[in-house]
Amino acid sequence: MTVKYETERLQIGEYEEKDWEAVYDYSKNMEVVQYESWGPYDEAQTKRYIADSIKSAKMYPRLTHYFPIKTRDVEAPMGGCGLYVKSYINRDASMGYVIHPDYWGKGYATEIVRFMVCYGFQKLKLHRIYATCHTANLGSAKVLEKAGFTKEGCMREHKKIRGEWTSSLLYSILKGEQKDTFDF
Questions:
Q1: Does residue 148 sit in helix, strand or coil?
Q2: In terms of residue numbers, what domain contains 9?
Q3: CA–CA gap between residue 152 and residue 94 (Å, rounded)
């Protein structure tokens, strides 16, 4: 992982081919992907994700901003995050994140979401960022609320996960609601 940014405890960068093993370690874990429409990944799918992430980093305009995240004391990525620009005209994007279970409950998810909000508003000049989480994913809902997102409602049966229709909570944050700043 090539480091581009640092928060208090995390390093955020761009994917490199060698990152596939660390990503595979958490993306094959059913506990990690239980609320996701993707995964669990096999080795080939993980390598394809890394290749697509590397390719998207070179596109202009860049619509997908996938970043690996790692702690300062561990070399391999312990998770990933992304902003997905829906419209540069409307200046909105969705965001997501995933973290290895060994790092759950330590505040890393909130730290990375706060960083991504700064990245979206300050660097990409977005107006609105939104995120969804499965209605049963209370941990993710707490993270979004701690990071300043407002719950907008429930999107009923809008996503299929392993053959079953599922509902998601919809959260958003607007540029004027951003509390944190980052020195880019």
A1: coil
A2: 2-130
A3: 14
CB neighbour list of residue 73: distance below 8 Å, 6 or more residues apart: none
Q: What is the residue type of 126?
A: L
80 belongs to a structural domain? yes
In a domain, 53, yes or no: yes
Residue type, 56: S
Number of domains in the chain: 1
**Three-state DSSP class for 172?**
strand
Q: Per residue in 88-137, pLDDT tens? A: 999 999 999 999 999 999 999 999 999 999 999 999 999 999 999 999 99
Residue 147 lies in a domain: no
Residue 159 lies in a domain: no
pTM of the complete model beyond 0.85: yes
The pair of structure tokens assigned to 49 is 């994700």
Mean pLDDT of the chain: 96
